[in-house]
Every structure is written in C-alpha cells, then in structure tokens.
Hints:
By secondary structure, this protein is α+β, with helices and mostly antiparallel strands. β1 (40-46) and β2 (52-58) form a beta hairpin. It has helices spanning 4-20, 22-30, 61-75; strands at 40-46, 52-58. The protein is extended. It has two domains: 1-34; 36-76, no CATH class. α1 packs across α2 (22-30). It has a two-stranded antiparallel ribbon. The protein is built from three helices and two strands; from the N terminus they run ααββα.
Amino acid sequence: MPNIGAMMKLPGMWKKFSENHPRFTAFLNTAPSFTGEGTVIDIAITDANGKKIETNLKLDAEDMKLFNELKEMQKK
C-alpha cells in the first residue's frame, strides 16, 4: 500500500524542483508533442566526476499505449 504521507509531499517537492530546473520541466512539457511510434529517446547521465552512462529506446505501439494512458490521467 502506498505511503499517503509521502505522496502528499510530492506536489510541493515537484514545485520546488520545477523552480530550480525550469528548462528541464519545460522540456518535459514539450516532449510529448515529439513522441510517436518510431521516436528514439536518448538519455545520458554524467556524475560529478565526469563518469557518463547513456542509453536509448525506440518507442513502439505498446509504448504509445502507455504514453496515451498517462496523458489521459493527466487531464483528469
């Protein structure tokens, strides 16, 4: 069962994160308009020491079902 207290903290934490990283949250808001079946998403993370990991994924029809479901949940 989810921890309700922890879940209630999330909106405030997300607001602060958005204030600290406005370009990232703007990117997340724009990204759905670029997604579709066949879209490739590249992800890279570089730590403070310069060590980097990278991966990518190509969206398929099943992925798009999930994305569309999440979009519908966001509207409610």
